[in-house]
Specification:
- With about 290 residues, the chain is an all-alpha fold.
- It folds into six domains: about 1-35, no CATH class; about 45-75, no CATH class; about 80-115, no CATH class; about 120-155, no CATH class; about 165-200, no CATH class; about 250-280, no CATH class.
- About 25% of the residues lie in helices and about 0% in strands.
- It has helices spanning about 25-30, 65-75, 100-110, 150-155, 185-190, 250, 255-270, 275-280.
Amino acid sequence: MSTQTCRGPQCDRDVYSSALGLCKSHSAQHHRGRPLAPLRERGGARVGECIVDGCTSAIVAKRLCNKHYLSSRRPAPAPRPTVCTGPDCDRSVEVVKHGMCRAHAKQLKVRGDLAKLTPLEAPRGRNADRAAACTFHPDRTVYARSMCRPCYLASRRKPKADKPVRLCKFDGCDRTHHANGWCSAHNDQVKRGREPFPLGTRRPGPAKGTPSPKRGKARTNLPNGWFRKTKPVKEPAPTDPTGQFAIVDFLIPTLPPEMYVQARRNLAALGADDLLDMLGLDEVAA
């Protein structure tokens, strides 16, 4: 099957739109309302190295590699001023945002305009000594009282008063105080209920002639088995010799004989002879 070629001028591409008989590029020209024109030649592969000295990367655009091409499109940063931009001011820049010294930046913030400052060689007022160098650091300018700011703030701090060292109240103990007037070791002795004794020695034992307490369980005057847990004694349940009504005698309280006789008469009048036998009232004399 033979393929048709584009009918555009100087074009040998295959047909894209069979209705128009044009390739894709000439079809775009036709739809945009432009007259058909010869197509431009396609650019070949970019071959070569970047023209920047010392760069061996491949060319991307304008004979530059990707890194140098992007850097060439960025605007060059403006150089930062090193000297104040205020009128007739040769001080160094202290406020980078405005490119001014601190005095001109303060003027701009408070007043809204800039004015000429007093020359640095002959300052006036209470800041007359700020042109000189610090007494202790010659590379720093004076902040106050012929000193730079760190030295001036350090001179205003009050020296810490030496606190007296508090010792343990035990005679002959040179340890520092911990709590309750004792050092940590003597305080532990007191907590255990012992008499404080010198450190580094054994605890004094009982006086001669006094029996030493035996180690082990504490002795008491209570009888043996006082601290043992005993199980409660269970009372035996009442039984019946016949084994039928073992709880009846336990439930019926002891009553006067007259009440037994009256109960037997009432049950007999009702015809409840089985209850008389069950409650044991059949033997009660009427």
